[in-house]
Amino acid sequence: MPSTRPVVQAYSVNRPVAPSVTAVVVTNGLTPFLPETLACLAAQTARFAHLVVVNVAAADTMWTVKEAIGTAFVDRANRPRIGVAQATGARNFGAALRTALDRPDDPAEGWLWLLHDDSAPEPTALAELLSAVDVAPSVAVAGPKQVSWTAPRRVLEVGITTTRFGRRITGVDPAELDQGQHDSREDVLAVGLAGALVKQQVWFDLGGTDPALGPFADGLDLGIRARLAGHRVIVVPTAVVRHAQATYYGLRRPRPTAADPDVPAGELSAGDPRAVAGQLAAIEPPATEAPTADQPTADQPTADSRRSLRPRRTAEVHLRLVHSPALAAVFVAVFALLGGFARAMWRLIVKEPDLVTSELLGPIAALRPTRIVSARRHIAATRKLTRHSLTPLLASWRQTLAVYQDRIAAKRPEKQRPKLNELELAERRITRSRRRIALALVTALLAAITFGVLGSLLPTVFGGHPLVGGGMAGLDTDLPGLWQSATSGWVTSGFGVPGPADPLLLTLTVPTALAGGSAQLGLNLSYLLAIMIAGLGAWFAAGAVSRSIPVRVLATLMWVAAPALLTSVSAGRFGAALAHAVLPWFALAMIRAIGVQVRDVYACYDQTRYAQARDAQARDVPGYDPISPLQPQRGSLAAAAAAGLLLATIASAAPMLLLPLGVLAAGICLASPGRRGLALAVLALPIAVMAPLLLEAFHGNWRVLFAEPGPLVAAGPAPGISAVAGWPTQPATVLGMTWPTLVSGLVLLGFAVLALVRTSAATRTVRLGWVIAAIGWALAFAASQVTVGVVAGTTTTAWPGPAFSLVTGGLLVAAAVGFGGEPDQRFGGGPSQGAPLTRARLALATIIVLAPAGLLATWLVDSHTADGSVLDLQVQPGTGLPAAAALVVDSPVAPYVLVLGSTDHVTTAELFDANGPQFTQAAAIRTRELTDLTSPSEPKVALATVAAQAISGTVPDVAHTLAGYGIGAIIVDPNYASADLNQADVVAALANTEGLAHVSTTEEGTVFRVAPDGIEVGWATLIDATTGIPQETLPVAADGTVTAELDPPVGPRRLVLAETADVGWVGSLDGVRLVPQAYGWQQSFLVDDGGTLRVEYAPRWRAFWLTGLVFVAGLTVLAALPVRRRTRS
To answer: CA 424, CA 1029: separation in Å to the nearest integer?
Structure first.
């Protein structure tokens, strides 16, 4: 039957040659390498019978390939028989040859010389290969030594082997020079196909290369199969081929030709060396000991080995699956997937996010059972030896370890910084010593301020007692409970309501974990350390814009003495204080992310060199001074990810800052060339953390973005004109005067104004600082107009403290940059070069230091009040409830406590659990209630009604109603006084009510137990579905779920929860979903059988949000790890 393969087109004949060797060149159209490769073929000292050029590009590029062939072999008397074939879309070298070549009638005597378009053999290469196979008839595959395309002294490959786990190894160090050190090699496991001489019969018997492989690992696969078939594979070091590794570096693509519409006719031609010189000059692949993604490519701007990582990983995994024992193949597949995930995470850690998808998808693409089975069957059909016979040819663990050690050693010179001379080293030691001393003094000052104000609270706080007062409250839970409160979507306010918890609870999981799982201790320590965190952040952030030690010290004092911080700490506004403390760290991370931080200059004794650097900057000359602070550095993905973590913390503590800081961060990244992708690293986690709150705002409750987390505190009087000095409320007074407390802010404002009008190279940064300050003032004004809650019967507006933190930060940036000093003034060569210390300068410096110091001293003196409390805080030894009440409700069934009090002679009723008032109160619920003041919800009406019935003492069955609502105790506030009743009247009415038992009366209030007919009151109660009579009270876990074993019922029964009915409540019995039903306003389930009962609140959106949150948080944390710094240009 005649062959159906394409006919090889005869291009030139008339040459008498020996018909033993057929040279095959596979090319992707007319590439920059093809002309030189063909010219090297034409210059071979040994003659080959045939030349077949296979084009895998589009058919319309064939004429350019023919032109290149004609140029290379013109005017040569001994040229071979030449043919061309079209194999568009061939997956690999073997697929191209299967399209172009038929099996000859007698292939025993023939050889195939396989060449890529980017593999140019030296003139004696074929002769050396033929000489080696002539003396060794058992050789089926002979490969040459591969060297660099443009640097032939750099050796790339002298044979290939693998580790015992299938990792490809060449045994050649990166950038290793060829000095004949590998010329003793002969028998190897495999050789690369570029320049390999393969016996025709073996090629066709083995079926060529594996069709499932792409352009990688085909040589290794062919060598292993040839070895298993009983043939020898050798390397001939005297045969040299220059290899550009174009596919490896993503460079093999067709060149533009004169036929292209965008190229003028006649401008390019296949043989014109000028047409390819520009492309070849950019291609100098480094020596590699194995194809990996982290090869050095600094000298090749267009070469990037990362482009080919995915197909290389696919080929590597496929090869392992094909050549591993059958029983081990399953484990190889599993470990390939797990290893792909681990490698992807490592790529993220080492700041190579563009390779994450390649590491994940590469192994997945290799898991194609049909291809794997077909390849294994083909190997079994030709195999004559066992896999164990190849063990001597594999790399030992010592060789593998040596390879990795050599790779690490080869990269060390890249990390070396420019060397400094002795004078510069001395200057660096002096500067660093001064800086360490200054930092130690600043740290001591911050510790003194913290201990001076809050030191008396430390012993009891470390004992786990809560700080209460102002915006602080108890947080009596552990890490799982805190996580549940932060992510459940159910807010335990009153009888509960669906809604987003404060994102700050999510942030508090970190200090809770660091505090050993105690949420209360984590909250207390975070609050007490706010001043220390703020001061140290200001020191390091100021160092990113100015290397002047005095500027950094003053910036630290100004930031710690900022009224926004002092007033927030005084009022226990934890969220605002935390946001102020973290802001400078966020600024530092953003500065480092885009690479604009200033650096030290240690060339102070070499003013000529520094002047040249400044002149080069003015003329926009790149690479002028590697240690000059004038030269922008590259961006940092780690810093951008850290900025994302910090912005998430700031936004959770002060939601009003999310939008302005997010827009500023995105704008800065997008406006910085080469840093645009960093915006995603900065914004992804804050958006994921704040997603529930943002959705709440999107559905109409926009006030939540201005509300504070934790208990609500009245905002206080508006600052008025003192807002210019950074005060979020009316300023404090000194001896009845307010102006002393305004001096610090006015001094900072004055320096910021002078920096704005002062001409300097940093004008744009100064303007940016003023933009930040203007945004802060605008945000503060908006916050003062937004009502966020009701305190003591009066509405209150949002606290503008976080906005004024922005104001202070912006002014500090402007002042520090404007007066940080020029680089050569910061580290002058000696005292004679410094500015003279005049009386005016001394007076100005004194004012600058005394202004914030005086404000701090005033605050320190006023922090301790006459009643012994510190600021607005006090240590609460218990839960905030009377001990008797806590004892009554502290049981596994988790009943509520009803607290009866009064405000402005109006009775109030509040519900708490056994822990009393908690920090978990959600701002979203408070802001919702602003729209419900005239139409309270049904649970609120029910609570107010039952409280009024209990106070009146006229409803005999009120105890059963209270028990049905899960209320196990009642506390009457000792200061209760309504319009008609006092505390004694209420106590008497309750004492005469059936089902209520008086427990105790203390200064904290009078406590009654709710126990109608001896029934135990709890949060989850089984009742008779017909009569409504309680049957059993079920225990409740700490995370708010119910899990119990139920006996089969006698009749129909219902599980009633003391919670508001919602579609998010899910109940199951032995894994079967229960039918939810509303029982009035309460949630209930029909339970018709016995088994394992489980009830929890699990809205459908929660799983999707948590999955996305954990995924984004994990990626951000991994990217922020400073394991290895990889910069972005």
So the answer is: 88
For position 875, what pLDDT does the model report?
Answer: 66
Give strand pairing partners of 373. none
Query: 593-630 pLDDT, tens per residue?
Result: 988 888 776 654 444 554 554 454 444 433 333 333 44
Whole-number pLDDT of residue 222: 92
What residue type is 24 in one-letter code?
V
DSSP states of 222-259? HHHHHHHTT-EEEEEEEEEEEE--TTTTT---PPP-TT
For residue 268, give the DSSP letter: -
The first and second tokens of residue 741, run together, are 């407390």
pLDDT value at residue 619: 41
The conformational region for residue 1020 under phi > 0 = left, psi -120 to 50 = alpha, else beta, is beta
Q: Rounded CA gap, 197 and 189, in Å?
A: 15
| DSSP assignments along 415-461, one per residue | HPPPPP-HHHHHHHHHHHHHHHHHHHHHHHHHHHHHHHHHGGGHHHH
Q: In terms of C-beta density within 10 A (0-12 exposed, 13-18 middle, 19 or more buried), how is residue 411 classed?
A: exposed
- Structure tokens of 121? 């053999």
Burial state string for 637-672 with b = 16 or more CB within 10 A and e = fewer than 16: bbbbbbbbbbbbbbbbbbbbbbebbbebbbebbeeb
Tell which phi-psi region holds residue 840, choosing left (phi > 0), alpha (psi between -120 and 50) or beta.
alpha
Nearest to 199, CA basis, from 146, 117, 291, 136 = 136
Q: How far is the CA of 347 from the CAs of 108, 320, 360, 936, 988, in angstroms?
A: 48, 22, 11, 54, 72
Nearest to 92 by CA among 207, 202, 210: 210
Q: Residue 197: pLDDT band by 50, 70, 90 thresholds?
A: very high
Residues 705, 658 contacting (CB under 8 angstroms): yes
Cβ distance 465 to 876 under 8 Å? yes
Which pLDDT value is given to residue 126?
92
Cα separations in angstroms, 1045 against 1015, 1025, 1042, 1048, 1068: 20, 19, 10, 10, 12
What residue type is 295 in one-letter code?
Q
Q: Which residues pair with 908 in a beta bridge?
A: 901
User: pLDDT tens for residues 322-360?
Assistant: 988 888 888 989 999 999 999 998 888 888 888 888 999
Per-residue model confidence as pLDDT tens digits over 214-245: 788 888 999 999 999 999 999 999 999 999 88
Of the candidates 909, 1007, 999, 1012, the residue with the CA atom closest to the CA atom of residue 956: 1012
Burial 831-857 (b: 16+ CB within 10 A, else e): eeeeeeeeeeeeeeeeebeebbebbbe
Which residues lie below 8 Å from residue 449, measured CB to CB, with a gap of 6+?
A: 531, 560, 856, 860
Q: How far is CA 83 from CA 10, 66, 98, 444, 575, in A?
A: 5, 9, 15, 83, 77
Query: Which tokens hold the place of 76?
Result: 């040569």
Classify each residue of 514-553 as buried b or exposed e, where b means 16 or more C-beta atoms within 10 Å of its C-beta. Answer: ebeebbbbbbbbbbbbbbbbbbbbbbebbbbbbbbbebbb
Question: From the CB of residue 979, how many other CB atoms can be counted at a distance below 10 Å?
Answer: 9
Least confident of 46-55, 169-178, 877-886, 993-1002: 877-886
Where on the phi/psi map is residue 114: left (φ > 0), alpha (ψ -120 to 50), or beta? beta
pLDDT at 425 > cutoff 80: no
CA–CA separation, 455 vs 890, rounded Å?
32
Question: Lowest-pLDDT range, 775-779, 876-880, 951-955?
Answer: 876-880
* E-assigned strand segments in 913-1018: 967-972, 996-1002, 1005-1010
pLDDT in tens, 12-21: 334 334 458 8
User: Distance between CA atoms of 1009 and 998, rounded to whole angstroms?
Assistant: 6
- The Cα–Cα gap between 591 and 595 comes to 6
Helix, coil or strand: residue 996: strand
Q: Render 187-223 in DSSP notation, one character per residue.
A: B-SB--STT-EEEHHHHHHHTSS-TT--SSSHHHHHH
Rg (CA), the chain: 39
